[in-house]
């Protein structure tokens, strides 16, 4: 029995190596969403600096994206140019979900400055000051982008900044396919 005790550290070490190997083999940008293949969570939020509201019901019958962003998000700045070109070139309907960009009584001052500096590619911007809509969508952090089909079903979730590669390899082909479906 004492001879087995000598092998315990080796077994433990090999177990850790196995877990590390398994963890490195998974893409950290692929964060599963429980909403893939299901109806998008409902929301009704105020539009940025407007008295009107926007909801996902306004997007029924369209293939669209929900892009969660904030002016304080460094990664959002990194994706903004790529996202803007993609939206313009492919004529994509996009709701920007301004996530927790609140801190003063002058809500929107920071995000409006950010949009003025970098441009506004969004069809409409929904204001999620308390973050509850983001929570309902399963947002882990910003930026995150969801693709929703004409029936309001979430078809994909992209975690992290949208890149040229993710547009080319994942988002554009999916959106083109969904547009063809009736």
TrEMBL record:
Superkingdom, taxonomy of origin: Bacteria
Membrane topology term: Single-pass membrane protein
Intracellular or extracellular location(s): Cell inner membrane
SUPFAM superfamilies reported for this sequence: Thioredoxin-like
GO molecular function terms attached to this record: disulfide oxidoreductase activity
Signal peptide positions on this chain: none
Gene3D superfamilies assigned to the protein according to its UniProt record, in alphabetical order: Glutaredoxin (3.40.30.10)
Family recorded in the similarity comment: Belongs to the thioredoxin family. DsbE subfamily.
NCBIfam families xrefs: dsbE (TIGR00385)
Protein name per UniProt: Cytochrome c-type biogenesis protein CcmG/DsbE, thiol:disulfide oxidoreductase
Species per Swiss-Prot/TrEMBL record: uncultured Thiotrichaceae bacterium
